[in-house]
Design brief:
- There is one protein chain.
- The chain has 467 residues and is an alpha/beta fold.
- The protein contains 14 helices and 18 strands.
- Strands 1, 2, 3, 4, 5, 16, 17 and 18 form an eight-stranded mixed beta sheet that branches. Strands 6-9-10-11-12-13-14-15 form an eight-stranded parallel beta sheet.
Length: 467
């Protein structure tokens, strides 16, 4: 570990404070902060000094929902752990939590080991794992206890994708009951997959095969119904619940109602639901396939309710659900049948910038930006204050952010391993300049200076909102 690093003269922004301060880093951690220009700060010396004058100094982003190398629909997500974590760093994210997958008929441990093998030695930034539970049985339930003890403290279940990841209500209830006992957190993909499959079959029979029908069959009411059902099952089990990629205003209303009742129910949304819509799904010449993800993009009027949910804390986290598939050769698998389009969008590199644009646009405050992108995901998944803040003792995962630089998002310039950008041509204000991960420079003044293998696996404690 190189010696001391000093970041001088920036505006340090955390979820709770904004202060013009210098930050001293030692042995990969934040050693101290002091107001800029004070005798304490002026007395500090370091081998390396970074001038952050006129810039923001923010915690590295925590993206708690990514899918690197995920097998799906006969293909695999196009970003590897190496390319995906490098792109994350370019976008100011210094920790991801990816999803290890249990295959039906196999042990959780087998899936977890497979994901460790994919990631180990390949990541530019730190990473953790959630566990996708596809097969609930007595052995699985026992394994959940063991995984919580070793730092895999969250488990994802699907009410969608029958025949692939789907769990029925009985399996969901059993897993929730187990998590109520072992301190784990159930993450739910809340869509009524059984009903959706009927609507898919009927649409295809009518000759409705274009990408836009993906959004039309995955109805907002079926997201709301599944969200409601997941909440009630969690209530019966006495378990907390985290609903992933909330896209519909009706689902937000279900979450808000549950939280008003005092339930430990949490909600995440993603940039694609805040900035994109069914207009994108309807783009001609099969271009709409680039925007196929589940839950699907919604009509624009849903966006205002999602922003409102983020302001009122009925939604607490913005993650990406980064799951990229190239347009050529992957999205094209669904030409003539929208149900065969691989579900997923690229976004791990864009999240921090898009949310800063939301600050510029007046949707959220600067501190709320850091709260929903850094601090809350770190707390939600048991990594705070090691991750998600700038404070003495925290990992020195720090981003020097230029709030005035302008950029145009494009596949020509992004670093994700995918042949299109979901935000092609979008102009944004604000850009990552320098990124440190545990005190090591990963991006240095807009140059990649990191390397595969720097990132280490991060075991997690249980959800810190339940302690």
């Amino acid at each position: 570990m190189s010696g001391r690093t000093l970041i001088r003269g920036g505006l340090v922004i955390t979820a709770s404070d904004e202060i013009h301060a210098d930050v001293l880093i030692e042995d990969g951690r934040v050693a101290a902060l002091a107001a800029s220009g004070t005798p304490a700060a002026e007395a500090w010396t370091a081998e390396r000094t970074i001038d952050a004058g006129g810039k923001y100094v923010i915690p590295g982003g925590v993206d708690a929902h990514t899918h690197m190398e995920l097998p799906f629909g006969g293909t695999s997500a196009s970003d590897t752990f190496e390319t995906g974590t490098r792109a994350a760093a370019w976008g100011g994210t210094t920790t991801i939590v990816d999803f290890a997958v249990q295959s039906v008929g196999h042990a959780l441990r087998e899936g977890l080991d497979a994901w460790h093998a994919k990631a180990e030695g390949n990541c530019a930034i730190d990473y953790g794992f959630h566990m996708i539970v596809s097969d609930v049985n007595q052995d699985t339930l026992k394994e959940m206890d063991l995984l919580v003890q070793e730092g895999v403290t969250s488990f994802k279940q699907f009410m969608a994708y029958p025949g692939v990841f789907y769990s029925d209500d009985g399996q969901i209830l059993r897993a929730m009951q187990r998590s109520a006992e072992n301190g784990g957190l159930i993450m739910m993909h809340a869509e009524n997959g059984i009903a959706i499959d009927v609507l898919v079959e009927q649409a295809l029979a009518r000759g409705e095969t274009d990408p836009r029908y993906h959004g039309e069959v995955r109805k907002a009411l079926l997201e709301a119904e599944a969200t409601h059902r997941a909440i009630k099952l969690a209530q019966v089990a006495g378990a907390p619940l985290y609903v992933v990629h909330v896209s519909a205003m009706e689902a937000v209303a279900e979450l808000a109602r549950a939280r008003d009742e005092g339930l430990n129910v949490f909600g995440e949304t993603c940039p694609q639901y805040l900035f994109l819509s069914t207009d994108n799904l309807a783009e001609p010449d099969f271009e709409g396939s680039k925007y196929v993800c589940s839950t699907p993009l919604r009509p624009k009027e849903h966006q205002a309710k999602l922003w409102q949910g983020l302001r009122t804390n009925d939604l607490q986290v913005v993650s990406t659900d980064h799951c990229p598939f190239c347009f050529v050769g992957q999205k094209e698998l669904g030409r003539g049948d929208f149900s065969k389009i691989p579900n997923g969008l690229p976004g791990v590199e864009n999240r921090m910038d898009l949310l800063h644009q939301a600050v510029v646009d007046g949707h959220i405050s600067r501190r709320r930006w850091i709260e929903i992108a850094c601090a809350t995901p770190a707390r939600m998944f048991g990594m705070y204050p090691k991750k998600g803040t700038i404070a003495p003792g925290a990992d020195a995962d720090i981003v020097i952010y230029d709030p005035h630089a302008e950029q145009v998002m494009s596949a020509e310039t992004h670093h994700m391993n995918v042949d299109y950008s979901a935000y092609e041509g979008k102009r944004t204000t604000g850009r990552v300049e320098t990124v440190l991960s545990r005190g090591e420079l990963v991006i240095t003044e807009r140059e990649y200076t990191g390397h595969a293998g720097h990132g280490t696996y991060t075991p997690r404690s249980t959800c810190q909102y339940l302690n």
